[in-house]
Amino acid sequence: MRFVLADDSFAFDGYSPSSQPMGGPEKSLAAVAGALAQRGHEVLVFNRTSYGLEAEGAKWEPLDKEKPAECDVLVALRLPSLLDTMATARRRILWCTGDLSYLSGAANEEILARHRPLVLFFSDAHMKRWGNPLGLEARVFAPGLASNYLGDEAMRCYEPARAVTTAHPQSGLGWILTLWIDRIRPAVPTAELHVYSAHLNRGIFGSDVPPQVKPLVDLVQAARDRGIVVMRPQGDSGMADAYRSARAFLHTGGPNDVYGFTIAESQAVGLPAVIRPAAPVLFERVTGGLTAHVATSESQFAQATIELLTDRAAFDRMSEACRAARSGRTWQVAAAEFEGLAG
Fold first, then answer.
1. Cα–Cα distance measured from residue 85 to residue 96, given in angstroms and rounded to the nearest whole number
2. Cα angle, residue 232 at apex, residues 231 and 238 outer, rounded to 5°
3. Against a cut of 0.70, is the pTM above it?
4. Which among 122, 174, 211, 245 could bridge 259 via Cys, Cβ 3.0 to 4.6 Å?
């Protein structure tokens, strides 16, 4: 089959996820393109890349480049307007991400009514947020895991013990930082919290950041002696190494989470999590008490983190459970399912 995938977010290609930080939906598009090509399909991706290239058998071209006359399957990431990318397509798929407000409005509803695409979501919780006023076919398609997170490489557990968080400044990062400063670090005076945040990293080096992020930059700089290490987010290769070097993954999530990509990836490596029940979709990624601690209060969150940082036997048990719970859902497995949806 000939697959055409279209995206209008930012410049990336099939090699990007391993080397640069990206959101889960864009990583998923890149991964499924390569996996479908490796399954013998002709795959063309049109996005914000500035030049053509081939990655894992899929061809990537600038979005404004002339398209082929027809395809078997057109996959539009996020924007209904991208369903018009091809004049002729046997099957059209709209792959939804994040907040679903972009599905509303007269123009978007007209496009959906005209093409009546299959609408894909990342999770049940994600799909339930949409009213589906046109009665379109809607399905859940769970992403696969990059090979970086599925190897058998042992956890490193460096000393001093470290926790890792990728929480967004507008989705619980301030809460985690305050809890670390007030409760966790005093109980484990040598521990480190590695914060992977592009906003904080820029702010610390003097670049402009959104006004709501500035207080967090000030908080981190005022707490330099509390073991907080701000890091620039990495691609899959770097983040897999970061997870293998830690003892706890601290995550709050939010009600608008669509899948819990970083939870899935860190759990697959073998890193236990400490989470709050603020994001229902996270419960689809973890097993409470086995692969993660689900904390309903500040005290529970702090104590669970302290336990993973100080009790190696408790960490080892949960780490082994994380690996044992890996679904084996590689992108090759996921692509076979995607192929079925397209057919």
1. 16
2. 95
3. yes
4. 122
- Under 8 Å between Cβ of 217 and 209: yes
Does 286 lie in the same domain as 210?
yes
Under a CB-based contact definition with an 8 Å cutoff, are residues 4 and 75 in contact?
Answer: yes
Up-side HSE of residue 57: CA atoms within 13 Å toward CB?
15
Q: Are residues 73 and 175 in the same domain?
A: no
> How many other β-carbons are positioned within 10 Å of the β-carbon of residue 34?
23
Report in angstroms the alpha-carbon separations of 319 from 132, 192, 314, 339: 40, 19, 9, 33
Q: How far apart are CA 301 and CA 279, in angstroms?
A: 15
CATH number at residue 252: 3.40.50.2000
Distance CA 200, CA 78 (A): 28
The one-digit pLDDT tens for each residue of the chain (343 residues) are 999 999 999 999 999 999 999 999 999 999 999 999 999 999 999 999 999 999 999 999 999 999 999 999 999 999 999 999 999 999 999 999 988 999 999 999 999 999 999 999 999 999 999 999 999 999 999 999 999 999 889 999 889 999 999 999 988 999 999 999 999 999 999 999 999 999 999 999 888 889 999 999 999 999 989 999 999 999 999 999 999 999 999 999 877 789 999 999 999 999 999 999 877 788 889 988 899 999 999 999 999 999 999 999 999 999 999 999 987 899 999 999 999 999 8
Q: Residue with structure tokens 């009514």? A: 113
- Judgement on whether residues 267 and 158 belong to the same structural domain of the protein: yes
Q: Are residues 229 and 271 in the same domain?
A: yes
Q: Is residue 261 a contact partner of residue 143, using CB atoms and an 8 Å limit?
A: yes
Single-letter residue type at 303? Q
> In 277-291, which positions are buried (b, 16+ CB within 10 angstroms) versus exposed (e)?
eebebbbbbbeeeeb
| Local structure of residue 183 (DSSP, 8 states) | I
> Which domain covers residue 43, as residue numbers?
2-144+329-342
CB neighbours of residue 224 within 10 Å:
9
